[in-house]
Amino acid sequence: MNLATRVANAPSRDVLEKIFKTTYSIRQFETEGIRLYRQGLIRGYFHPYLGQEGIAAGACTALRKGDYISSTHRGHGHCIAWGADIKRMMAELLQKRDGYCQGYGGSMHIADITSGNLGANGIVGAGAPLGVGAALAAQVRGSDAVTVTFSTDGGSNNGTFLEALNLAAIWNLGFILLVENNGYAVSTTIEESTREPNLYKRGEAIGVESHQVDGNNPLAVHTLMQQAAETCRAGRGPVLIEALTFRHMGHHVNDPGKYMPAERLAHFKARDPVDSAAASLRELTDASEADVEAIKAEVDREIAEAVEFAKASDEVTVEEFKQFADVY
Amino acid sequence: MGGREMMYRDALREALDEEMARSPEVFIIGEGIAERGGSYKVTEGLLAKYGKLRVRDTPISEASMIGAGVGAAIAGARPIVEILYIDFAMLGMDQIVNQAAKFRLMTGGDGRVPFIMRTQGGTGGGVAAQHSQSLEALFYHIPGLKVVMPSVPADAKGLLKYALRQDDPVMFLEHKHLYMTKGEVPDGEHVVEFGIADVKKPGRDVTVIAWSNMVLRTLQAARELEDEGISAEVIDPRTLVPLDLPTILTSVAKTNRVVIVQEAVRRGGVASDIAASIQAEAFYDLDAPIEIVAGLNIPVPFNLELEKASVPQVDTIKAAIRKVASA
């Protein structure tokens, strides 16, 4: 295994700025979303990505146009990192017409197939076969596009996890299964869920190149993902990556997360992925503190605009819905 | 235009061949479908013609095979996933019900899933409870899926070709008894749109609705009843979703009597739902209660005589038609 935390060739300032901006955008989007949720403006389930931002930011910045992602129930971060319009994301959370799914999908189902985002998913573990399918389609077309399925430690105990990875392996698909191991399936710990909590070992068991990485280090994730993507584009995929991380709160907004040990939470909060991304930008480039603050100010403005946009959008009418129902 | 007599399985293969030649996005995955050509020889020869990227064998991983088909379809390809027995499709129900069927609505209509699952069901020669089921009602119940059940080679070909040209998930349900049955298939381009029922035999006295293998049994029953002076009109909906209710209602307005035949178990079946639609739309056309002939509410047993007793036979269909005709 490789616990890839060191960086041989640091990326450019542009890339590091993008990684930082992405982590911070996710942080602020989720924080604002939780506020709106508590005001009653967002309904249903809202699974915050707080604390895990470094994984989506590091991974998606290593991909390119034409690639695909499939995501999880905790999917806002993946969409933002993939380049989604946060105005349309916020509008979707507020069940509005200008949302990505016109209010038909909501938090757990944001998708944008025009950009290669196959969608978040309300069924834990279901994204892996879908991702393998996109990778299969790419191979049939003779494309070197890569598909990344974001999965979870919870999803790893669903049968489709190994089935899908095995299909990708026997067909050498351009498929990266990125497991965000945050230690919990809702409230059940990974240690209670498997005798071998180092999930990357499951890939090795079926002949798949597998790595474990510090998920709170966005630059480490980015570097490893670049290598994995190259491996896949060369026809030597798939690759399994386990990214170790921790949630900053419970499973969803209304879960206080009392089962999360305070010292463990403190340990991970001291290794905040947003701070890590800012530090990389400051230490590895000539970016100043003022540059970092300028990016933050820009993001804060974008989030505020997204909220205004979402609030101003109207909702699909029942009459329009009934017309849609006719296709069924 | 003329036609050729061919077997159901050959008609299916011809559809696959023509559509694979027409679009490079069409590909097939399944267990034993490549070199072996499939358990029912439907895909025989396609590997040699289209290569291993587009005709490939899978391990026994139904949930992920189906899911991979759904994912490929979302990504714009036109995959066909062949599942050996409809019973095995139960392993992939999450991908069918929660993924394929939901994606279009969940994306506000922008996301489409042109995914086809080809599989076969029904009783046939003592393959027992886990290989004999007729499960169309499960898919019929789920909004977002098209349910196709061809009874004759021409429909098998035309409906499969249409399935590969539309954009919604299709449960293409064949029947293990039908693969070696023969029928005329029109020459040239033959595409059958979904939602158009076919009157397999015109008649005056009773409307009999049947699909898949039950069409053949019902036609035999109807022919035998002609000798008794009962004229049955046999309607094959061909697709259960979408269902061509207008053609059924037109027939009911003429005959005023209805029998519905399904191989699936009676409880919670498609026949009950069609009966409900007929009584809602044409109650005052009816001169007798609608009769449903269906499988018993029981798993299919291995013993051949018991297997026969568990699903409609020509005699039970005849008895139901006689009863309704004389009511």
Structure description:
The complex is a heterodimer of chains A (328) and B (327). Chain A has 13 helices and seven strands. Chain A has 328 residues and is an alpha/beta fold. A five-stranded parallel beta sheet of chain A has the order 1-2-3-7-6, with helices on both faces. In chain A, helix 1 (13-38) packs across helix 2 and helix 2 packs parallel to helix 9. The radius of gyration of chain A is 19 Å and the shape is globular. Mean pLDDT of chain A is 95; it is low at 1-6. Chain B is globular, with a radius of gyration of 19 Å. A seven-stranded mixed beta sheet of chain B has the order 3-2-4-5-7-6-12, sandwiched between helices. Chain B has a five-stranded mixed beta sheet with strand order 9-11-10-13-14, sandwiched between helices. Chain B has a two-stranded antiparallel sheet with strand order 1-8. Chain B has 327 residues and is α/β, with parallel strands linked by helices. The mean pLDDT of chain B is 97. The relative contact order of chain B is 0.12. Chain B is built from twelve helices and 14 strands.
Assembly level: heterodimer
Residue runs with pLDDT of under 50 for 5 or more positions of chain B = none
Helix content percent band of chain B: 25-40%
Distance between the ends of chain A:
49 Å
